[in-house]
Amino acid sequence: MIAQIYQTLSPKATVTHNDFILGVKSGIKRQVDVSIRFREAGCEFLVIVQAKTNSRPLDVNTIGEFASVIKDVRASKGVLIFNAGFTKAAQTFAKSIGIDLCSAHDAESKDWRTTLRVPIVWIRLQPYVQFSALMELKAGDSIGINISEWKCRYLHNHEEFSVLDIFVGQWNENKLSKEPNKTHVIELEDNEYQFFAEKGWRNTTDLKLAYTVNRHFLRNELETIEFTGIRNQLTGNVEIVELKIVIPPRLPEHGWVELNKDEEDFVSDDNVIVSVEDPIILNPPSGQQTLSVREIL
Known about the structure:
Elements: H1 2-9, E1 14-22, E2 29-40, E3 43-51, H2 60-72, E4 77-81, H3 88-97, E5 99-105, E6 116-135, E7 142-144, E8 152-154, E9 160-161, H4 163-172, E10 184-186, E11 192-196, E12 201-224, E13 227-232, E14 238-243, E15 257-258, H5 261-264, E16 274-277, E17 290-292
Parallel strand pairs: 3-4, 4-5, 6-16
Antiparallel strand pairs: 1-2, 2-3, 5-13, 6-12, 7-17, 8-9, 8-11, 10-12, 11-12, 12-15, 13-14
Helix pairs in contact: 2-3
């Protein structure tokens, strides 16, 4: 498993499982769990990996024994992999002589599973759309206050359309600017329309569509065992071969916390593995409300 992980991480390297390398000083073949050979800048490099299984953390004696093997086979680097951890003294000793202490993780192996916490940011964009028009209404006309139910058509060919669908379609297809805290105007193709006002179609001009965007950042952490890779216990760095995650429902009760303004400045592609941006889903409010026109005497 570990050899497969390293082969995936270093596809150009020669990775050998259960290798035997002749020791320069000892003159005997030293068994190595995984060897990694590669060429860089005209030089040959050898990394050796030993995997240990035990119920207790490894101590300095194990580090010392491994250091002697590294020196004997003239390896460029040594990596010890052990999922039960390392004593504090072992970590200090390994760090001083350049040995990496790691743990391997595999989603398919019960003994090598782990939980990996993955940072995620939900970028919640809330557009506020404003429509305005000059409409010739008559006494007794009424227009629903729910814009999604408005009936509109072009004056020249009577082709019907939805004003709200124009905005939603372009927004979801990323054709509109999503810059926050700014008024955006959508240019419409025609400027002569008719709106249906219960008693008939009414001529409408100067239809305008503008919107502003409020942006909110909400953070969360994903926990998953669908993770295969190597974690460096000394630096905390993780080399990921495979990662499967499930995004939690975008509801406040599922652990989402809104970032403050200072924290928003630190959100970037470098420190957020997953970001989620919502499309607009139309959910008309229940209950019908109308704006009515009465005759002015």
